[in-house]
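Model: Ready when you are.
Researcher: Fold this.
Model:
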Amino acid sequence: MRDMSTQIRIAGIIEESIVDGPGIRFVVFAQGCGHKCPGCHNPHTHSFDGGSLIEVEEAIKQMRNNPLLDGITLSGGEPFEQAAAMGELAFRARLLGYNVMTYTGYTYEYILENQDIISGWRKLLENTDTLVDGRFELDKKNLLLRFKGSENQRIINVRKSLLEGRMVLAE
């Protein structure tokens, strides 16, 4: 029987993006999100039944075919809804030297509180270099923000935050 944690239900992949994090990025959009933020940029990713399945190994193979990539961005949908598989993808990408950026509607603090309770959350968090956290809030939407959609969201340096034991914003 196939290990389902090696498969990700995705809404799609962008093989090269310069708007979903620093540098040239491979972007994986998770299918499924319970936040359903009003005004969401990707409402087609909300359903947990849509999209298609992809093996983690297939995503890694696609990334390795492009020597120009700086990193991978996990977006959605909600990557933490598939944390075991997304964590494995992040882990494998980091082993290959890629920077990992993850978008989530959860807050960093909530993820920390639940990382030992919800399967895969610790692995995904520990293999994320940069986390954009917080739900998209339509009344705080700002098109001038870099790499985030609303002013309540934060761009967090996860490596530094975990090392220092406190939340550290990315510079």
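Researcher: Now this one.
Model:
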Amino acid sequence: MLKFEESEVFEYYSNVFTELEKQDNGYYPSKHDPIALSRTAKHFNISEEEASSIFDKFSKHAAELDMAKIKKLPPELRKRFLRQRSHDLLCNNRDLPFFKIEGEPSEELTDPLDILSDEYQSLVEDIAYNGWTIPISIDIKRFDELRQKASDPLSLDTFFLQYYNGREFRYLCRKTKKLLRSGAQQQTFEECCEAYSKGQFTICRTALISVLEGMISEYNTDPCDIRVMKVCHFQAGEERKAGRNIRSLSWISMYQFTKKFYEKSDFSKAEPGMMNRHWIEHGRTDRIDDGTDCLKLFNAIATMAFIKEASIR
């Protein structure tokens, strides 16, 4: 299983490799592998075995995605490409003699992080537009399943209602609660979890909005600015520039979610078909929640909790 939240481990591990390769002007596995492994395990306070397993699984998945694209090439072109890729991989390993004989790889090897982020960005945007940010505990191999449902909001809602029916929802509540501010924010969230379990969806939905807005506002450089979409858009760009693709994807997810959720609406006209913050918070909504709206907010809050956890490491 490849949980999305574990992708931070893979990204950190990969970035340590990049740092070491720049420092030593090339990749030396015998020297770099143990350093990258040790630093990653220490940074995330996990065992070296766990860090290695996560890195290997994500590397394999990125390679599978890359190979799927290569297989679409015409046979001759595919054969030449794979031959060149094999040559470049051997030349990239400075512990082997090929570099001394053949020299530098013909071109820079594709970064697995770029493969993963490029593959999933459009999916992340699509599902967030329909009300669902990245679920942190999901196996990213299920993203293909989500892709098939991304254009159908009802199918997407059904998927997540089933996904959060039981253990995953309890995990979300436990994990998220730890990362909220102690005091009112944490207590409000706890009471929302209890209200949701009792089927008290309307009051739960209203209170969750305040928790979500509080979490996003913590990242606003201007404490007087209340524009949450602006915060999400800005943070997505900043994380991308810093090379933190996973956090950038999470902020892109939040931006697309808030863009729809905070969409301006004319109260003199019919209420939008999707949950809208202004109609709820201004007491204008006639929308009865069957629990789906609450889950969308719980899920968005969990994504923010993931971002916060990553930011404080």
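Researcher: Key takeaway?
Model: The chain has a mean pLDDT of 91.
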